[in-house]
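Propose amino acids for all 507 sites.
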């Protein structure tokens, strides 16, 4: 009968399809949501969950374990809670939060999970890395000796930064912290450094300005912008610096050089305090949990200059932190200062007086120092920092009255010119030749006879004259090497002649 034949055929087909199925017990790690709110979910039923384990709520919704209690788990959500409700199932994944990395991210604006925020379609990355990775061992590191040109003369000349260094930028709100960091990115337009900018809880308008600046004045095809918007789940803000660090480490571990800007870690600390208190961790100083130091330490320790055996790549970190009323002794600034290799301190008073960038020379420091400075710039700087510091003190003292002697008047004249060459507009980074020319002219007294207000007028023409008159010396300077004795003499003579010629036009 036809019906009997069809049934027999179906049975034979079904039997063959079952032969490859392994029969046996299977476990399903499933818990349930007990309570949810403020970006935090309390979960029961997952007794074997691990710290930082990725949990799935279904429909593309995830979170990670942040706190382990005896009868519950504190989970930080990576999506706004939306439709998640008490009683919903939660599954353990036995994995950790990972992000896409690689050259496919260059030129893109993404969120901390690597999801696109621009209009260029999905990120087709082939490699993924966990957001939490161990820092390179001491034996795998090399000395920091290669310079990072930030384009800000006050930093490159007085507080040089090296590849693999961690230099904190700290100051009150709206004193130019982000401008200095973005200028450092713009200065890498023609260098071999890949830049990563991560915005942590910053206003959308501020982030958009940074992105537009990089696109118009920098090299966006060698930059990655990671944005954790304030309206998103707090979990995204929490993992943002770690995710961006993994994206930058991809290039470092392949022998390349990267620069990462964290803007800013004060907001990240506030997010950590928020989620920690919501998950029941005890508060400490200024209500921050005691592990906030460890959180930022394990993040910034990942910046390093690797040894030749590890590919000789480097990852330089520029974390930004905000102070209130210039209080550097607050908890978070103090922590970050002790973790990093120096700090660029921005002074509100200097900023209000029009001295921009408002770098406080007396408090700022780079613990790597001249070892990471371009040799030609190091030989030109000489006593510049000491001269400027003395000028600041003398200027304050002479305000009380009295006629200074000839030597003091000369110091005041020279100091006023130093202050003028350190004055710089936003998003107009200087190249190495411009910095060397300005510092050399100042230190040799070529600018003393020129009114301070006219120094900025001759700057661009000064470099043009040098390029025309001594092109071979300009090439040597731009290569970063030191000049021979004969080249120094020719350079000084040409520089003096150019200053005098341009000064005669503006006087």
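Proposal:
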């Amino acid at each position: 009968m036809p019906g009997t034949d069809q049934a027999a055929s179906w049975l034979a087909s079904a039997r063959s399809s079952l032969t490859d199925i392994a029969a046996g017990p299977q476990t399903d790690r499933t818990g349930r949501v007990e309570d949810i709110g403020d970006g935090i979910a309390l979960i029961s039923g997952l007794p074997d969950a691990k710290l930082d384990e990725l949990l799935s709520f279904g429909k593309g919704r995830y979170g990670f374990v942040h706190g382990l209690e005896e009868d519950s788990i504190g989970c930080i959500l990576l999506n706004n809670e939306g439709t998640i409700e008490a009683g919903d199932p939660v599954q353990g994944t036995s994995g950790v939060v990972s992000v896409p990395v690689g050259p496919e991210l260059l030129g893109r604006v993404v969120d901390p999970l690597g999801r696109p925020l621009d209009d260029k379609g999905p990120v087709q990355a082939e490699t993924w890395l966990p957001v939490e990775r161990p820092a390179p061992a001491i034996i795998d590191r090399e000395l920091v000796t290669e310079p990072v040109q930030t384009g800000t003369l006050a930093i490159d000349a007085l507080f040089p930064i090296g590849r693999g260094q961690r230099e904190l930028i700290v100051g009150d709100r709206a004193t130019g912290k982000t401008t200095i960091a973005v200028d450092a990115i713009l200065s890498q337009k023609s260098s071999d450094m890949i830049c990563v900018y991560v915005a942590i809880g910053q206003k959308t308008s501020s982030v958009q300005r940074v992105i537009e600046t990089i696109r118009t004045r920098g090299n966006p095809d060698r930059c990655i912008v990671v944005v954790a918007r304030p309206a998103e789940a707090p979990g995204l803000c929490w993992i943002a610096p770690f995710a961006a660090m993994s994206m930058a480490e991809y290039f470092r571990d392949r022998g390349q050089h990267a620069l990462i800007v964290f803007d800013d870690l004060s907001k990240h600390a506030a997010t950590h305090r928020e989620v920690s208190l919501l998950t029941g961790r005890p508060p400490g100083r200024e209500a921050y949990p005691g592990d906030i130091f460890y959180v930022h330490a394990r993040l910034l320790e990942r910046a390093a200059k690797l040894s030749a055996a590890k590919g000789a790549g480097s990852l330089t970190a520029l974390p930004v932190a905000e102070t209130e009323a210039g209080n550097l002794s607050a908890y978070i600034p103090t922590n970050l200062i002790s973790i990093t290799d120096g700090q660029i301190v921005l002074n509100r008073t200097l900023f209000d007086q029009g001295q921009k960038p408002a770098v406080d020379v007396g408090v700022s420091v780079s613990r790597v120092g001249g070892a990471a400075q371009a040799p030609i710039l190091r030989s030109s700087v000489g006593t510049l920092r000491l001269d400027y510091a003395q000028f600041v003190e003398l200027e304050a003292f002479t305000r009380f009255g009295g006629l200074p002697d000839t030597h003091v008047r000369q110091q005041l004249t020279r100091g006023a010119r130093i202050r003028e060459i350190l004055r710089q507009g936003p998003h107009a980074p200087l190249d190495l030749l411009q910095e060397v020319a300005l510092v050399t002219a100042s230190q040799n007294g070529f600018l003393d006879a020129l009114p301070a207000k006219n120094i900025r007028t001759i700057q661009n023409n000064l470099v043009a004259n040098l390029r025309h008159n001594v092109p071979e010396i300009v090439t040597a300077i731009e290569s970063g090497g030191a000049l021979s004795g004969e080249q120094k003499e020719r350079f000084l003579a040409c520089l003096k002649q150019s200053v005098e010629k341009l000064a005669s036009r503006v006087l």
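Residues 467 and 474 are 6 Å apart (CA to CA). The first helix runs from residue 2 to 18.
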